[in-house]
Amino acid sequence: MAKLTTRTTSYGGLLMFVAALAAVVIAIYDFVNTGNGIAYSYGAGLVLVVSVLILLGALVMVFLWNKPAWLSGILYVLLLLGILGNGFAAYMLAAYWLAIAMVVALIGWFVHATIDASEEERAKEAVRKEVLS
Amino acid sequence: MIRRFAFSLALSVTLPLAAVHAQDQQPKQPKGDAGQSRTQNQTQGDTGTSTNPAGNSDATGGGSEGSAASGSGSTNSGSNGASSSQNDGNGGNNASSSEDGADGGNGTSNSGGQKQGGTGNDDASGSQSGSQSSGQTNSGSSGNATKPSQGSQAGQQANPEDGTSGPSAQGKAQGADGNGAAKAEAGRTKQGPASQNTAKSGPDKWMKPTDWYTFNGDLMAQKYSPAEQITPNNVTKLTKAWEMHTGDVSNGSGKLPMTVWSATPLFVNDTLYLGTPFYRIIALDPATGRQKWQFNPKTQLKALTQPDLKNRGVAYWQADNPDSSKTCQKIVYIGSMDAKLFAVDADTGKPCENFADKGVLDVNKWNTTNDKWPLSLLQPPTVYHDTLYLGWAGKDWTDAAAPPGTVFAIDARTGKLKWTFNALPKEVISKTGTSNVWASMSIDPETGLLYIPVSSPSPNFYGGNRKEKLPLATSVTALNADTGKVVWSRQLVHHDIWDVDTDAPPTLVDLTVDGKKVPALVQSSKQGFLYVLNRKTGKPIFPIEERKVPKSDVPGEQASPTQPFVDRPEPVIGANWPGVSKLADAVSFGACSRKAKKLRDDGKFTPPSLQGTLTFPPTTGGVEWGGGAVDPTNGTYVVNANHVVQIYQLIKRKDYEDAKKNGETSGDYAMEGAPYAFHLETFLNWAGMPCWKPPYGTISAYDMNTGDLLWKHPFGQVQKYGFYMPKSWGSVTIGAPAITKSGLIFIGASMDSRVRALDLKSGKVLWRANVDAPAVSMPAIYTYKGKQYVVFAVGGNSIIAPKVSDQVVAYALPGGND
């Protein structure tokens, strides 16, 4: 049972989701915190928007299981690009907490892509779980 | 429009380097203000000085090296020829020199000045001639180099070597002139009703070294504080002590023009005084930032001569022995763009009824020649011995004939005129103008010499209409503070057609050179040279060499055949433009390098051309109006500099008029009255990236006792859309550093909206803080009730970044007063 539970839990995806959520909070703070050098700048707005998109992407990636394969593939690519781009943008904005959040999200992406069970496996596990229950 | 579009596109797409950009887009600023590059540029432009090309200048000028030249200058006009030949004789290297020589001579401006004055004979002449000759000689020899003399004697006679005229010369001259008010009136120096020699010497009683009582901290423009509480070891603990917002800010989106605020807060009379771009005076508690009082002149808030509302702060005066039963024993002054000078009681903020017209002096009443725009008072006056020394800014890019630059000496109590000084001869002011003093000035309180940075004549970029010798133009000139007579003058650029106004006050400091103590001054410049002179005589302490420079290929123009060069101290910018940036070139698919090949580039001082000239440094400098700071205890001089490349292109009048009909004159200066208009463009690619290699801004430290460069680093960071570019690129800067005795440099100035503290020994950034906009000013450093404060006025300047602010922020070490 324990093994089954492990296989169905997307730790990497969750990590990515949590990091993206933190990124959104940080980006909002950076955007409105007058005096930080980047408040209300296009750059601060850009990383806020991208952080929200990463959060949405992670949400779909982790919690929507029955996605078509092509959608999963696109999401993987877009999330990777989004995380890398947002991390670089955060670095250029000297928004270092945001950059750290993106590093964590990137780790989550890697874990999700390489260690977490695939969607197919997770779907099968879910079925088995249901059958066993 | 096209450029604007490209710019915005660039912005939206990529790299920023707005600074440069900005300048482009806002070409219309007056000299005066320099506040920003733009301004400066424009201003200068206005001045029209450039026009000089006439060859004469060259002749003269060229030779002149500047210094002496001036003297000659005026004088010269007449005699140039002669002098020249003499010079030639000397011949030095400069081929052209002959003519130059003459000028160059160095003449000390004295003569020039005086002569101009019309006095004619004056000693000036005498001395001048002498000077000139010398000057020329110098030049001649120059080719080689002017000898560094500190000589004491120099002072007394015209120095042949330098070309500068010595004090004695002046003395005479003055003497001559001096007496006769009538004579003086005829000349360039006119005595006013309040004219009177002061018996005093030394700083005024109320001027305390621990205060920050002038725009530059003190009279000598050292920007130095003896405070020691904040040190390199504890500066990282620096925190915000207080912050206030004046409310006087505009981003230009409403009815008001954008604001540009470069005020230095003054700390004196146990109060912090500020001037705002709405021309209000605000008095603050130095420890809390709480407002004590405010004065609103309710003057018009219109961009009459500048594209923006601008202000660089206020000036303070106090009676030696204040009578507590009377008001206005202590006065704060602020000028406005419409040429009004307001005087209010420093303790109450109420207008001083006995000053001019109930506390308001209309300086524009003296604007009687080519009065096409008001004499904008954006730079606060310099105060010394109950006298206000007042320069002004204008709009000199629009016409060849503009108001001639005049310095006014005014009685601090009554507003009555003591004397006026004008750098241009009467004979030429029907076709040219300005050569005004729009930056701040410095004073040697012991000798009573007033040092003024004189800008270029108008129009800025073409001199064919002003070929006469104008030796005081683009010079550093020493005047007798009591009389306005020229003591010496050194022209820094002959026949200026690049709008490289002398734009900052010389920093006065005593140096030890070859074991001898020398009263020196360090004059920074847009052209990137640091001129180290004996401030009593104007003679160079480190060599100034006249070298051949490229000829003009524009019909009607005659550039000076030589210009003064300085190799030591090492110039703040490179000798040649940095070359094409591979990154910018790649982004533009090679457009940068293709364009560079089409432009004229024959090295430094390549004249503006019809095809377009690659100009480095251009009117943006080099060093801007803030100048440098010095630690007088060891002669360490610190200065920030811009590394910008612009394209100078003259446009035939007919082509300009045709373009004007089609509304295609963006970036153009009319220069009405000249056969050409002018197009100024910063060398950017389609994305707004500079086409030249970084860094774009640096900060350097020198040991001025030896002329050695101690260190030089990129300074600041380019910031665009919030993104910071690599530190190695540096940033264009507007503003200046201040030094503390404890070994720290405090400076804002960069376009990244940060203020910093650097280690004086290494230049390493030890502390930094974010502020609301670029702090395009210089900080004030003071100790109040045992606690040291560093205060920045954070105003922003659209030239370097589209951010404006009304923030005043003070930093101090945490905790109570130590």
UniProtKB/TrEMBL annotation, chain A:
Please indicate if the UniProt record lists Membrane as a keyword: yes
Q: Does the entry feature the keyword Membrane, yes or no? A: yes
User: Which keywords belong to this entry?
Assistant: Membrane, Transmembrane, Transmembrane helix
Task: Please give the superkingdom of this protein's source.
Answer: Bacteria
Transmembrane residue ranges:
12-32, 38-62, 69-89, 95-115
What is the name of the protein in this document?
Uncharacterized protein
Q: Which organism is it from?
A: Pararhizobium mangrovi
From TrEMBL, chain B:
Keywords in alphabetical order: Oxidoreductase, Signal
Annotated Low complexity bias? 66-99, 121-146
Q: Which residues form the signal peptide?
A: 1-22
Annotated region described as Disordered, given as residue ranges: 22-209, 549-571
Q: Which residues form the Pyrrolo-quinoline quinone repeat domain?
A: 212-790
**Which residue intervals are annotated with compositional bias (Polar residues) in the record?**
36-55, 147-159
Q: Which GO terms describe its molecular function?
A: oxidoreductase activity, acting on CH-OH group of donors; quinone binding
Q: Organism's domain of life? A: Bacteria
| One GO term describing the cellular component | membrane
Which Pfam families does the entry mention?
A: PQQ (PF01011)
What is the required cofactor set for this protein?
A: pyrroloquinoline quinone
Q: Which InterPro entries match?
A: PQQ_b-propeller_rpt (IPR018391), PQQ_mDH (IPR017511), PQQ_rpt_dom (IPR002372), Quinoprotein_ADH-like_sf (IPR011047)
**Family membership:** Belongs to the bacterial PQQ dehydrogenase family.
Could you identify this protein by its name? Pyrroloquinoline quinone-dependent dehydrogenase
